[in-house]
Amino acid sequence: MQNNGWILYFEDDIATAELIKTSLGKQGYQFYHFTAFPDAGMHTIKETCTEHIALVILDINMPGKSGYEICGLLKQDFLADNVPVMFTSGLMADEDIMQAYAAGADDYLVKPIHLNELQVKVPKLIAQKQEHCDAAEQASTAMKMAFDAMKNSSELGAILRFHEAILQAEDYAALAQLVFEGTRDFELESTLVLVSEQEPVYYRDDMQRSQLELESILAARSRGRLYSWKAYSFFSYDLFTVLIRNMPIDDEERYGILKDQICLLLNGVDARIKSMLVAKSEKDKQQRIATISKVLANLVLEMEQQNTEFSTKLERVINDMETNIAAEITQFNLLETEESGLLSIVNESMVLATTLFEQNIDNERQRKLVMNQLIAKLNN
Fold first, then answer.
1. Domain residue spans in the chain?
2. Most exposed: 68, 71, 123, 167, by fewest CB within 10 Å?
3. pLDDT, tens digit, for every residue of 103-128?
């Protein structure tokens, strides 16, 4: 005969118990029968009832613990949600029946029990309880799916907002703060290490600092894009690594979803760091150019000042020399032809010196022009 399941039966009246066991046995049900709640309690029941229980039938007036008490213990520490409980009793008062349902009854049969009614009710009660549990589970699953969908939608929205926000980050500290806010939206704790500089740059969401953690993050970079150890997950990219310190390893489904979503969150960070490096390099270059331009401009100004001073001094020296020579020549009583010849030599020397000076001035002008052009190109 087909086995339709096991019934856990509490009945101290042996004659009634045998009658019910025989009747339901014809339908393929088997029994774990107790005439009283065991002295060892639930331990005995768990050791005895090794098969899945399909139904519990409880007499209310039992020796020791009542059916109400036994029902509470079974539901608390033994029965699955889909196992129905049927109370049997000679008590017919409304308060007795209501107390049975309050204790967890799914059905109530008044003694003496009609076996035909029992044979109809038992399979129907088992099926109804299973259908009820299936419906409740489906509703729970639907609610969970809806909640997960809303949660995922919220988290995807957080990812989009994060990618918009990092475009405005002007330095590493601001970028790190955005990473921490992004991971906090997923209820995660994180550490960020940037390797874009000569020395690693370390940030942690709780402002603490751990040298061992830093060394672990740097070591994890050699293990690939994603490396996990216990609740720690390391997400490594070209220019940075993020350590998540509290991944939900006990929830495999959530763990898998989070790994994908954190990858989505961090995918834009590398590009932002690169753009920040380019901007920093450009800023440094502009500062160097400005410094060079300032030095050259000062040099040109100094050259102008030196040339002006030199020209003034040379003109004064030449004028003084002409005056002195003219005064001295008159003392030598030279012939007119001798005086003219000497003056001619002096004039030629002065013209040559002036020419050399003017050539030097022209050369300085050329150098000044070149420097000004260089300054203009640097500034452009």
1. 5-138, 167-267, 277-379
2. 167
3. 888 899 888 888 988 899 999 998 88
Is residue 227 scored above 70 in pLDDT?
Answer: yes
The model's pTM is 0.44
- Look up tokens 């760091």; give the residue: 273
Q: Which CATH class is domain 5-138?
A: alpha beta
Q: What are the strands of the beta sheet with 240-244, ordered from one edge?
A: 201-204, 190-194, 240-244, 232-236, 226-229
CATH-assigned architecture of domain 167-267: 2-Layer Sandwich (3.30)
- Under a CB-based contact definition with an 8 Å cutoff, are residues 354 and 310 in contact? no
| Pairing verdict, β 85-89 and 53-59 | parallel
Residues 6 or more apart whose CB falls under 8 angstroms from that of 265 comprise 158, 159, 162, 182, 183
DSSP letters, 178-209, are: HHHHHHHTTT--EEEEE-SSSS-EEEETTS--
Q: Mean pLDDT throughout 33-48? A: 90
